[in-house]
Amino acid sequence: MAETSNPPTAANFVHDVVVEHNATGAFGGRVQTRFPPEPNGYLHIGHAKAITADFELAREFDGVCRLRFDDTNPDTEDSSFVDGIIEDLAWLGYPLDRDPLFTSDYFAQLAEWAELLISNGLAYVDDQDGDTISEQRGGYGKPGVDSPFRNRTVEENLALFSAMRAGGFDEGAHVLRAKIDMQHENMQLRDPVMYRIRKESHHRTGDAWSVYPTYDWAHGQSDAIEGVTHSLCSLEFDSHRALYDWYLDQLRELGALRFEQPRQYEFARLELTHTITSKRKLATLVANGVVDGWDDPRLPTLRGLRRRGYPAAAIREFCDFIGVSKTNSRHEIELLESFIRTRLNKVAQRRMAVLEPLKVVITNWPTDADGNPVVEYVELNNNPENAEDGTRTAPFSGVLYIEHDDFKAEPPPKYYRLTPGREVRLRGAYFVTATDFVSDDDGNVVEVHVTYDPDTKGGNAPDGRKVKSTMHWVSAAHAVEAEVALYDRLFAAEVPGSETGDPFDDLNGESKTLLHGCKLEPALADTAAGEVVQFERLGYFAADQRTPLLFHRTVGLRDEWANIQKRK
Questions:
Q1: Which of the residues 30, 38, 59, 252 is marked catalytic?
Q2: For range 276-291, the mean pLDDT
Q3: Phi, psi (5° rounding) for residue 169?
Q4: pLDDT at 558
Q5: Residues 14-66: pLDDT tens digits?
Q6: Which helix (H) or strand (E) holds 394?
Q7: Environment class of residue 426 by beta-carbon count within 10 Å: exposed (0-12), middle (13-18) or buried (19+)?
Q8: Which of 48, 62, 160, 552 gives the lowest tally of CB atoms within 10 Å of its CB?
Q9: Is there a catalytic annotation at residue 196?
C-alpha cells in the first residue's frame, strides 16, 4: 500500500513570537511553557495538540515545559485522573523529567495576593448569589450594575475574606470579586469572581481550604509564580487575556512578581469530524454506559486511542502537520487516520486472519501413511515495506478457512474471487479451483470444495498463467480462535449536534461490532498486548491490553483521506 503524501508542516505563529522575543531580549532569552490540565477526566486528542504545542515550543528553544494540574475545583477532581494524565503524557512521548506542579500548592500565595488586592481597594466581598451577579453584569451593549457591596471598606473586606477562608460561612454566602469596571466593553472585566466558598474535600489539600480560586484568578498567577514566559491557551480564552493581564499588572505595580510578567497567546483548538472532545460530555458517555469506560477504543481519549492501536508518533506527526494557528477549523477524521495508516504501514507486521470463516476442503490434497492430511509450511513476508523484518512460516494443509465473502456460488459482475470453476491464488501457497460447495437448509454456503495445482507452490504457475485474485487463508487444524472488534464512527454526523444542538442525538447505535470465532494464523497467538499488526486485506488491528486474543480494528487499509482530496 502506498504511503500517504502529506503536505509540509503548517505554520506555528507562536514560534515566530518567540523568535521576535529572543531578538529583542524579552524574558532574557528564556522560554518556559506549561501544560495545565484539570484532573477531572482523562486527556483526549484535543489535548494532544496543546501538549505538542507546549512541549515542542520549549524543546525547540532549549526551554522548559512543566505539567501543572489546574486543581481548583474539588467537586470533580480526583487523584486517579492525575495518575492517568501523567501516564497518558508519557505514552504520547512526553515523560516527566521532574515532579508535576499543582495549582493547589499555590493556594496560600494566591490567597495572600488576593488580600494584597483587597488592601489596595482592588477586590471586595460580595454577598449576592451567582444569578444576581450574572444578571448585574449586563451584556454586550447592555450596561452593568454595580454591586451594593462594591464600596465596602478595606477593613470589612479583609475581615469577611478571612472568615470565608476560615470556613465561617455557608456555600454561596459570599464571593470575592475583583474591582475593575462594571461598564467595560469586555465582559470579563466586569468585576469577575476570584473566590467561591466550597465545602468539599480536595484530592490533595483535604479540608484545609473552604474557598477555592476561579480559573482566571489562579491561572495567570500560577504562571507568574512558576516563571512561565509564554502561556498558550485555546482560542476561547482570547477574551480572557485582558483579565489575565489586568491581574498581573496590579501585582507587578504592587511589587509582588518575582519574574517578568508572562504573556498569554491563544490558538485554535483541535476539532475533528464525527467527534466530541468535551470532557463533560465524554464523562456522560462513560457514566451512562454508552461506551465501555474512558479507554473505549471509540473514544477520542488518549487511552482509548492507545487501546485502539493508534501510534503515539503518528498523533504527534498529525498535530505538527495541522500546526498552531488563530483560525478555528474542523479537520476531517480521515486526515488523522491517514497519519495512523502511514505510520503503521511502515512498522506493522503482516499476518493472516479470517474474521468470518468459511471452510474450504482441498479434495486432492495428499495424506501421509496414516491417512492424515500432509502439513506443509509456506514462507511469508512479515512486512514488504521493511526487508529487515524478515519472513515467517505458516502451516498449510488440506482444510482451510477463507473469508465468507471470498466465495460466491452466483458471483456478481466484476467479482474475481472464488466461484465454481474459477482459479485463484492462496497467499504464498497454491492456485486452487472451486469444484463444488455445500449449503445448509437455508441455502447458506457452509463448505467449499477445491482442487489445488501442486506445480504452483509459492503462488506462481510454471506455465505463466495468471489469476485475478489473491486471497488470505488460515489452516483449520492450526487456527487460533479469537474475538475481533470492528468500529464505525461513534457519532454518525460530521458535526455531532449540528441539527438538534444535542450531540447525543447523533450517536451511532452500530458503532461497534464484536465478531466471535475468528480464525487466526498461529503466529498471532504470540502478539504482545497493545501490538498492532496488519491482517492482510482487512486492516490494522491491535491486540487488547488486558484480554488475550481480543483484537481491535485500528484503521482500515483504504486511504479515505486521499479519496476526499480527490473529490475536492
A1: 38
A2: 96
A3: -130, 155
A4: 86
A5: 999 999 999 999 999 999 999 999 999 999 999 999 999 999 999 999 999 99
A6: strand 391-396
A7: buried
A8: 62
A9: no
- Report the alpha-carbon distance of residue 6 to residue 318 in Å, rounded: 10
Core vs surface per residue 119-157: b (16+ CB within 10 A) or e? eeebbbbbebeeeebeebbeeeeeebbebebeebeeeeb
Are 420 and 438 contacting, i.e. CB atoms less than 8 angstroms apart? no
Annotation says 269 is catalytic: yes
CA distance 91 to 360: 43
Reply yes or no on whether 414 is catalytic.
no
Residue 40's φ and ψ, nearest 5 degrees, are: -120, 20
Q: pLDDT tens digits for 147-190?
A: 999 999 999 999 999 999 999 999 999 999 999 999 999 999 99
Instruction: Out of 66, 179, 241, 279, pick the active-site residue.
Output: 279
Q: Is the pLDDT of residue 563 over 80?
A: no
Which of the four pLDDT bands, split at 50, 70 and 90, describes residue 562?
Answer: low
Q: Which residues, in sequence order, are bridge partners of residue 220?
A: none
Cβ atoms of residues 124 and 179 within 8 Å: yes
- 537 grid coordinates: 486485506
Please check whether residue 384 is in contact with residue 350, taking contact to mean a CB–CB distance below 8 angstroms.
yes
Q: List the catalytic residue out of 198, 204, 269, 408.
A: 269
Contact assessment for residue 104 and residue 204, using Cβ atoms and an 8 Å cutoff: yes
Grid cell in block for residue 361: 476442503
- Tens of pLDDT, residue by residue over 363-392, are 999 999 998 999 999 999 999 989 999 999
548 residue type, one letter = P
* Average pLDDT of the chain to the nearest whole number: 94
Evaluate whether 272 touches 330 at the Cβ level (below 8 Å). yes
E strand or H helix at 378: strand 376-381
As a residue count, the chain comes to 568
Evaluate whether 175 touches 134 at the Cβ level (below 8 Å): no
Rounded to 10°, the helix 13-24/45-60 angle is 30
